[in-house]
Queue: 4 jobs
Job 1
Amino acid sequence: MNTAILRAENLRVTATHPDKSGDTATVLLDDISFVLRRGEILGLAGQSGCGKSTLMRVLCRLLEPDSGRVWFSGQDWSDIDILEYRRRVCLLPQIPVALPGSVEDNLRYVFDLHRDLTPPADMVVLLDKVRLPRDFMANEAVSLSVGEKQRLALARALALRPQVLLLDEPTSALDPENAEHVTDLISEVCHIEKLSAVLTSHIQQHLRITDRILQMDKGRLESIAR
Amino acid sequence: MPADFISVGWLQVGYAAGFVLVALVLSRLLRLGVEGDIIVGGVRAFAQLVFLGFILDVVFDVQNPWVTTLVFLAMIIAGAANAYLIDTPRRPSTFWLFAAVLTIVFVGVTLPIGKWILAAKPWYQPQYIIPFGGMLIGNSVTAGLLVQRNLGKLLHDNLAVVETKLSLGASARIAAQPAVVEAVRTGMVPTITSLLMVGLVHIPGIFGGQVLAGLPAIEAAKYQIVVMYMLTAGATLTAIGVAFARVRGFFTPRHQIRCEELARLR
């Protein structure tokens, strides 16, 4: 639990916007440093627009920071093949995305992409993990509800056998009851699969399953809330 | 010139301009707001075609491979420049990309047609190869521009899906593949539609021109078939070439989407 699986050092991201007086730079992330310990669920709290999603995209390396770097399992991320890194550090975005095709197609996509991953003998075990009904397998993925898509996205991520899950406001689009269920599910899955996770939310209640909470404000890590 | 060929005098060309006047009056009456475009288009079409006629008469008389090559270079440059001017927003890279793709398409399609299919002697005989090349370049520019415009839009519209695939460890090439395929299809739609409609709904230019010039219709049909197949190959090569060249620009070497590039093209 005490060794770091992910260590972010001085991450800084700026965005430039053209306007009348030329290009204006806005700081989205300012000198972000923190450690995610192995097996830990780390909460990231903060109001909408404070930079949580930007930080998650940077940690998954979908967005390159202007400066700073990340260490994964003690290895500088620039020494790791980026596609391999994304398998290990997997992002679940705020709005879950269903890929075209059936639920089964969505799960198979991962195994088609990574031939070295052995698919389970029966794909339904992945649905069991996220408590989606087994008879959903043939359903069109795009026709699922937001909550069901969130579970499918989680199942798809688990198929990758990642070491870190980046969960960006996974409950923000859900009603309170569904949000509670998904929060409990995330906690259960992380413990069973022995995953480390960063969980963001602007609602404190949704961070109850975390071991620690970092507070973000205007692109900076302000304080340790718990 | 065949004996029964009816030559059109400049006066008759002037009378034909009366049809443009009809279009102008209708545009004015119905407040279509295209009067300016009709006038500019009409004048440009007249000037460009008269200029082309004079130049080609000289080129056909000279029968020199280097002169033919020069005409083709000019056509490729004009095609690439038009692609640059039509594309929005304008990007200098469009000129160079189209110049490269059109050159490849010309060398890969028109030259083999002149040498082996028409078997003209000499193979560079300009009255055969220049009209074929001209049609090829015009059609290919249309296909390439359609691909270029649609690729950015498709990637933008499917940004969440593309980024989800990247986050699952897909490479940029794999994540963008559906958008690339769709953009290539879009670029080929006009050419494939022409293939399906030719002879049924519309009589294309080369067929009509040859019939007007007094050639048997079946000879004109054979030429038109060669042209249609050539345009299909040209549009396919251009659409694929432009799509593969352009898609790279939407991603960083680290398989990250260049969102600013997509936003710029929206």
Job 2
Amino acid sequence: MKLYEYLAKRMMAEHGVPTGGGILCETPEQAEEAARKIGPCAIKAQVLVGGRGKAGGIKLANTPEEAKVRASEILGMNLKGFTVDKVLVDPQIKIEKEFYVSITLDGLVKLPLIMASAFGGVEIESVAHENIVFSHVDITTGLLPYQTREIARKIGLTGDLAKQFGKVLIGMYNAFRKYDAELVEINPLALTENGTKLVAADGRFNVEDDALFRHPEFPTVEEGTELEQKVKKIGLAFVQLDGDIAVMANGAGMAMGTLDVLSAYGGRPANFLDAGGGSGVEPTAQAFDALLGTKPKGIFVNIFGGITRCDLVAEAIIQVKKSKGIDVPLVVRMVGTNDVRGREMLAENGIEAYTEMGEAARAAVKAAYGKEA
Amino acid sequence: MAVIINKDTRVVVQGITGSQGQFHAGQMLAFGTQVVGGVNFDKAGQEIHGVPVYATVHEAVAKGGANASIMFVPAPGAKDAAYEAINAGIKVLVLIPEHVPTQETMEIMQYAKQYGCRVIGPNTFGLISPGEKAKMGIMPNHIYRPGPVGVVARSGTLSYEIAFTLTNAGLGQTTVIGMGGDRVIGTNFVDALELFNADPATEAIVMVGEIGGIQEEMAAEYIKANVKKPVVAYLAGKAAPAGKRMGHAGAIIEGNRGTYQSKVEALTGAGVKVAALPWEVAELVGKALK
């Protein structure tokens, strides 16, 4: 889950990273008041989209009155589909040089990775590889000052600035660990006050979803479409696609494979749905019902029963058929645990079930479109 | 022959008293696996399926001679349980739970490395060596047969589908390894390829990959330089859009990284036969072994 800039900075400031002392505001009047305290300022829309400056989401103000006007322009505006309801009023700073620094999770090396560069202020993807310092942290010992000194030297920082940089990096790392982040980034890390001080001028902080149970303090930001959120609440992995044949399978790999097979036979999948391993009748029925609600041209169910019992999947489908009716062509493929019983149950209710995946996918395409694609 | 687990593997089940642990301990015993006990601190002294429940992993090692552990512990308790197993001297650790925070998985991996413990998973279906009657996992027992094919997969159900078509085609398996669907995993394609390459009983290798990450690309490099045995692959996610997590934490195309195309090109370039559809894997393996 991504955190807003103001929260990202708050998490870092809590751990000793200088973040400039901006003030969060929700009304033009609050922005005016904030500008009175901090002087000439930048008013920054708090949205989770990139390129907000270019889109008009960041404006400068030199007086409190101007801050009020600028804030009223930004608050309520629509930035790439998101309505702005908060702005961060940050002091204007004179930047001598911009650095980049981040900590991420390196899945291959299986350790946190620090990236730092003297060429900050732009997206790190556009910085040449040789201009980035890469340094892994041994997660069982933690980040020690010597490692920050090594990195500081490599990006050209010495003396007091190297010490400030070390403090920034250790603060970032501690916040990264405490809040189970998958990304902590400062870009730019600005050199200000005539080259004597480092300040985090912008911050990004992504908390890993799997660790959110430990951090009830973060307000949840709902991501995805309405339908995606609905199925997510049932506890299943779901992604909406632009096709017209709804798909349900068990297991993430199997669900992906099902989309591929369906596509290979000319079908256009409407979604990815991993109906889970060993989910009960109720969640399966709810998910199936949600698929039906999208008014697809057809539905394709593909189950290889392991922990998932085919008879329970059949029961879920029959339950939906009896309570609401299924008014679109449905093709089921079912093998594995209790498959014979599952197919019998479906047949008793007028639903044909296949055993071969390819044959079933072809039948699903034909049933949905009225012809072979 | 087989890799990682065999008839001498002595398994302890951490979390044996939960419904999943209990069910799968029974299934592993039914397969013929040496399950020497389970662990639950509060239920020590009880028996489940006729095997003792110990209070700690240390006791299961000392009294039951356990040398491998399979963990059915919910994600929030996974780090503690994994550290306990590693510290007790367990050499093969299978992490079944999904949703273990990645930073904790990293700590587990680093600790395991220090103790020389091999980790499978997390978020895995486990592994199985049919000819050795050794199973540490949640896969259905009946779909595997002893034979010459080594299988390594990122996903469970899809690998069941493929293992079953192999079995039905008369192509049994030495060992089937589930790597797990997370971003950080203990045993990856390259590790598994290294083991299968060195195993005299394995004559062909099957990889079941998917979009996301660069594990398949690294495997391709390894194969090119080291593997003489035939390798067949199936990759899921050809129809998946970029930027969307397809169920597994690791199954996401980020920018131009982790695409289906890049993986197919890398593997094909290394001489791997890539099946377009899951059931074509068995045909390709059959041809390669002729």
Job 3
Amino acid sequence: MNEQTDKEPQVSQDEVAQIKDISQTKSRRRSQSVLVPLLAIVTALIIGALVIIFTDDTVYVAFGEGFFKGLWRAVEVIGKAYGAFFTGAFGDPVRIVNALLSGNANQIMRAIYPISETLRISTPYIFAGLAVALGFRGGLFNIGAEGQYFIAGLTTVYVGYSLPGLPWIIHLPLALVAGMLGGALWAAIPGYLKGKTGAHEVINTIMMNYIAFRFAEFMLDVGGPMSRGDGRPVSPEIAPSSYLPQFFPNSAALRFNVGFLLALLVAWLIWWLLFKTTLGYEIRTVGQNPRAARYAGMSVPRTIVITMAISGALAGLSAATDILGVLHFMPNAFYSGYGFDAIALALLGNSHPLGVVLSSLLFGALRAGAQNMQGIAQVPIDLTSILQGLIIVFIAAPEIIRALYRVRHLDKGEELVLTRGWGQM
Amino acid sequence: MVSINSTQSLPKISKRRATTLGIVFLVFAIAIVILFIPSAEPQQRTTFALDVTRGEALPIGSLTFSTTLGLYMMVLLSVFAGAWQLAKGFKHVYVVLSMVAGFFVLAFLIWAARDQSMNLTGMLQSSLLRAIPITLAALSGVMCERSGVVNIGIEGMMLAGAFLAALFGSIANNMWVGLFGAMIGGGLMAALLAVLAIKYKVDQVIAGTAINILATGLTSYFSSRYLQTNGALNSPPTFRPLPIPLLSKIPVIGPALFNHTFPVYLTFLLVIAIQGMLYYTRWGLRTRAVGEHPRAADTLGVNVFKMRYTNVLIGGMVAGLGGAYLVLSSVARFDELMTAGKGFIGLAAMIFGKWNPIGAFGSSLIFGFADSLQTKLAILSVPIPSQFLLMAPYLVTMVVLAGVVGQSRAPAADGVPYEKE
């Protein structure tokens, strides 16, 4: 509390202090920017474990027979649940080694299925996380990734099925660009409204989520303009020329595709954009201090629209890779949940592209593992939502983590401005 | 200097806006002429039924009239409003605006029900019922945001309320205990928001988002662990309609307003109570002061943190009641994600209602009306996709937020953590 109140009058002193020990603190600060998220994840997992123990009847029965029996049973329950979680996310190590030794392609594919699923689920997460992270850097809170995902899904799938016969080298990029444009356009509208009228992007992106959802429902409903026409509320299949190439084309189960490499490439591009280009500098300046940006001669409304458009294009890519790489059509209920997960991803990754990639891998593993956990240990899949909610809380309020683990507060000064309340503009 | 400038330019702006509004009224009239009149045959007749089958209102039969005549009436009324506005100007122009919008909607109903019958009273009733959870969500938002705490987590608070309403109600086999449980559920989530926003000064939008995700996870997890496997934990008793003596016998108004369950009346009471407390009590003045200018309030001895904590907690309980309504007045069970975005619609209703309890109630009614209209139109086989009607509330909110018609302004310190000197 004190550091923040002191900030205004003591800016110059702070800065002097910063320059003095910048060489010493930089490495320590960097280590802490990893430490706090790690502790947040660990704490969330511990609380998750407690939830699992307290909701397991057999633990209560065992405690009835004796304290140590109960304790042992609790450890067993957790071991089983998190063990299933691990093998669901990364595969059974023993099985993978055996399969590799046997050299049987079929066995290998079955053994690496879990990790391929983790990577597949991470792909759209990377894009969606980048979308929100870029917004945060620009001082904008894009809660609308879900809506941008719907609209981008529509534009992607339309290009995918309406232009059969194109060579893939044209068709695939065209479909990807269509998705980016769809998402960019949908996100640019709240950006424009914010830049022009000051209407808060949080409300507008939420509203546009619902509009997008209804619009997609209308387009894909039975008898709708984009429905398949066989009485099912889904779009037609896209042409194979627009498929994202699979890494394992012989196996239908292994859905891991080139989209993942594209995601890594785009993450690097966003890093380059943010930290190596003039536009990125403008985005970050507007995000940190719009007034200063204005005095420096930057057009704040223009930057806001551009930031939102790029953010929407990224959210659009998450839909495009889902459709072109995995689904090959668009169903009516296209809920992804990426919109909210992406907020957690961006926070966990400290709004840095590398951080987003790492946290996306983690969340991909969470989602893939939870499925297995539900199947084997009968722990409801919704545990992941609890873990995600807790992770957001701990990341957003690092004081809780610092107090729990007695970590000293090092990073004065450079704190990322995330969003602003809608009272002040 | 600045204030002089703004007072000088004020009449000019409002004059331009007055002319615009007059033209808007005329556009409504023209829209009726273009959209509805050409497809209405002269011999067609519209019937509005005014009695509902259940309830104790005195029967008055139904209203049948020529469709074209009805449509021309609506045109005439809108033209009159437009002409009057352009020539003389109304004092309460936004009231007239909503009236003209009402004429347009009525014209649409007259057109949609040509050669058919539409139950107007039934529709009012279902609009109100659909508006109740939205109203409670919006009231929760008003409570929190008036004191300066942005509440994006209404949805999560409603879910927690709905969950505990079902659980407590089932265990005690008593809906009043369920209602109490809902207040605990919403209150717990609100307490988390309050601690994060006020003590830890977390970005409030993020705190609210975390609450939504956490509440979704917790309620779904415990629901699939217990409520779905053990039916006895998920079968709360429900409130029965309590017709108010005499008032419920009035035709149209009786069934629409005075033949409902207790939570509906409670919502009416809360709207009036919060409006009254916010504007006519010391507590309300302090709440608004803390939301607009916390430093000034602090200087005058108001405990900013305490005001914010109390308001957020009450707001959470109100949101919890919204969740309870879904469980204890309609479906009698908890389903995962059963709030289905009502918390976010409530947020929209709060903005549309300009952060004011009665305004929030009014806009919730409009949203509830759009929702019930959509189901009615499917029955009347009107060639408008229901999805577009369901989009309307969100579009209108965006238009209002952009300041196109009547600016909606948030409390000045909304979303800004307070730092004590």
Job 4
Amino acid sequence: MAIARVAEPTGSLQDVKEQGLDREDLLQIYRNMLITRGVEERGHILYRQGKIPGSFYTGRGNEAASVGVATAMGTDDVGTPLHRDMGVHITRGVEPWRIFAQYMGREEGPARGRDGNVHMADLRLGLMAMVSHLPAMMPVAVGAALAFRIREEKRVAITWSGEGAMARGDAHEAMNFAGVRRLPVVFICDNNQWAYSTPSHLEYAVEHLADRAAAYGFDGVVVDGTDVLAVYREAKRAIEKAREGGGPTLIECQTLRMEGHAVHDDAFYVPKELFERWAERDPVERFRTWLRDNVELSDEEEEHAGSYVKKLLNDALERAEQSPQPDPETLHEGVYATPEDLDTPHHK
Amino acid sequence: MAEKTYLQAISDGLREEMRRDKRVFVIGEDVGVYGGAFKVTLGFQEEFGAWRVIDAPLSETAIVGGATGAALMGLRPVAEMQFADFVSCAWDHLVTIAAKQRWRAGTPVPMVLRLPSGGGFSGGPFHSQNPESSFAHIPGLKCVCPATPEDAKGLIVSAIEDPNPVLFFEHKHLYRRIKGEVPDERYATPIGKARIHQEGEDVTVVTWGAMVYTADEAAKEVDASVEILDLRTIMPWDRQAVLDSVRKTSKVLVLHEDTRTGGFGAEIAATIAEEAFEDLDAPVRRLAAPDTPVPFSPVLEKAFIPQVDDVARALKELIQY
């Protein structure tokens, strides 16, 4: 029995405008989705070239979900995106060259070579770096929301989880505490149907993960995670509700992880027909079609967006490859913070 | 200056910091209306309100994860585990996130985790542990273990001021049993500085927490001049003070209430062996709890926690070596 509300797909252009998006905003969303996909495609090539140590993860198929939510965030809001949420970093303004530097373990990546892949974030852009233990960042985001509530600030924390990680206790404690205190936090569950090789039916027994929200005393919403404007609409609604003291929302974005868990995994366990079916709903292609149908996206504009992204990524790769390796002499630095480290806007 | 219990000293230090700095808040189970299981925060909620003295659900993960997030947003959380033993439920947020955050992501996590620890009152396997060595092993965490009321106040102040996650191990068996003079004014006891509890010439005891008092009593039973060094904090720990004392007395007993294997005493003994071998007139002696869980029955617990007689015996053997 479903409890959560199932969100409508993207409506007319008029509806979209009423949500506060003008034509330029829509084109920006499109560019952010292209950059998101482009960064990960280029990353894949770098990996094949042997330039990325360790493993490599992408969020192919999740571009609409990540960009849609991040577009709905306010400047002073904060978030804890995960490894399928490159679109959040891009939308918040992390420069692609720094992401490539991060992939390659270079000094100028956000983690300065101390951590790899998407374990990065720039707190100046309101993002907190994920850890591998999923969804351990959920309680951390709840703590950020608690800080906003204590200081009576109108800010919201957004936190991500996959459908696999929703099986862990952290998710329960985070959502329960947030529900009890009606904290300004929005829980995003990217349900991409596969947790490594484990399918959804071995992770949870409810119809929708968003149904669980009712058990914590707040609303749950299920949204098509390949429909960027529907994701944006639901995220915006939830974020503004939280900002006004209405408490948390759990939004389940339904997608399919279009690649393996990581680059080493060919996802042989995912039925081919499932990939084929979801490929027809490719989020980037879907939004491109919508733009052509609704706001008269021209060939020229499309070409311009494509060449803009291509140049951005070419330049980014070049700059990242020039970024120095970290100096082993610095390994010991910064294990412990000094009082000077607190000299940031956050700690004033 | 006034005579206060160890518990009152912690409470006073914390209350003064909350009055001084609006960023400081308390979160834990039963810390508000009830004042905490041991009453350290008694009366705090009346004074500071329900959003600065937060009664959390029974959720150690959410408490420590939440404190981490609040610290990243610029607050100064002081989170309480009802018993130090329950920190196991919050391991990930302490060890995986808070400890590594500065080094990995460049963002400090200024938070304090209060951990009522230690045995001596039949608390059994889950209300009596001394898990400090587990956390001293984690780069990025600081561990403090005050023994006196004066240090309890000064170290809670330092812990709150510190820009790192600091674990504040407060020994439950000292809470109301130990009284001492505590300055009225605000002061910070430096983290990483040992205290000479008692000066001596013949043999050194290196210890911390409740074992300081066990060593003190044992020293009275031996016919020798015993130096008792109270480490006060074990991460960072005052290597220099230990080495200076060993160089003076040439004999050393490392004593702790935590279990022996992999206990923090092993690190101290290894450091002495590496750096002061030539100064020793006897092998470094370790005395600790045996490698078992903490037992419940008073008879068994007495056999588990190092007793005055055990320490006195070890000292006599060292002196006669």
